[in-house]
Amino acid sequence: MRLTVTRETFPLRRPFTISRGSRTHAHVLTVTIEADGATGRGECVPYARYGETLDSVEAQIAGLPPRFDRAALQSLLPPGAARNAVDCALWDLEAKRTGRPVWELAGLAPPRPEITAYTISLDTPDAMREEAAANAHRPVLKTKLGSPGDLARLEAVREGAPEARLILDANEGWTRESYAALLPELLRLRVELVEQPLPAGADEALADLPRPVPICADESCHDRASLASLAGRYDLVNIKLDKAGGLTEALALREAALAAGFGIMVGCMVGSSLAMAPAVLVAQGAAFTDLDGPLLLAEDRVPALAYDSRGVHPPSRALWG
Question: What are residue 42's DSSP bridge partners?
Fold first, then answer.
């Protein structure tokens, strides 16, 4: 088995801003695994919020033994970006070696397109209104908030896209008090979901706060071990492969979360179609899908995922799986 790691950079269409900062490029690691004449690929996006860098994730991957399988990988690396890229590359490798698609190998139903949210980056109200209007044809818009002046931003997005379904993501940027103050406005503006309003360490406050708009755990939910602490505080969990550590754990997390009574959202970091491709399988039947990373890029991989009025389509064999 030969494993290689490549650093790649994809420019964004425009700066992408959340409550923690801005970026103009997506910096990713691509893992390629060759064995028995077949090649599998996976992509990850190291995330500073979780203490990851390109260097640290690459070092984790470099520390793997010469040979291992997907089952062994789950204990060789912790949940996170490194395990994600390797896990997805192993799934792709198995598909290429056997001639069977990953969905079949995983015992899943044939995947279909899923409607995905499109993200409106944090900006001035005027800029966000303009971006919302330009994307008002999309069925679901996700609004990045989490800083002073959020109500004006949210109102601007609603003005720009009066008919779109709205969800929002505070990226841990609110307090108990700001959440309570905004709640009536969220109802007035027909917001359907709030992602991670409070810092992950302040989850306990949500147990005592009303949740007429469903709340989704993002930074507070990584893998199955996260679920016990979320009961009574969140209504949904956002499954991201870079947090869970790959498709293997993401599928297991989805099953466990549903069994525990949580709704499912499937999200992404800002990466290419190769990063989104495995997540399309996890997103089947999810309450909310947010796999718009490639739509935010100025240039994507070739071949890329297909997006149209039916949503994001399952990947072609040439891309992944």
Answer: 31
Distance CA 151, CA 159 (A): 12
The answer to whether 144 is a known catalytic residue is yes
**Active-site entry in 96, 142, 240, 243:** 240
DSSP state of 79: S
- Averaged in consecutive runs of 10 residues, what is the pLDDT profile of the chain (321 residues)? 97 90 94 97 96 98 97 98 98 98 98 98 97 97 94 98 97 94 96 97 92 97 97 97 98 98 98 98 98 97 97 98 97
CA distance 92 to 22: 32
> Which tokens go with 265?
């959202």
Report which of 268, 308, 266, 269 is spatially closest to residue 283, judged by C-alpha positions.
266
Q: Strands 38-44 and 21-35, how do they pair?
A: antiparallel
- Provide the token pair at 5: 């790691």
Nearest CA-CA partner of 170 in 222, 234, 215, 227: 215
> What's the Cα-to-Cα distance from 141 to each of 6, 22, 116, 131, 290, rounded to whole Å?
33, 19, 9, 10, 9
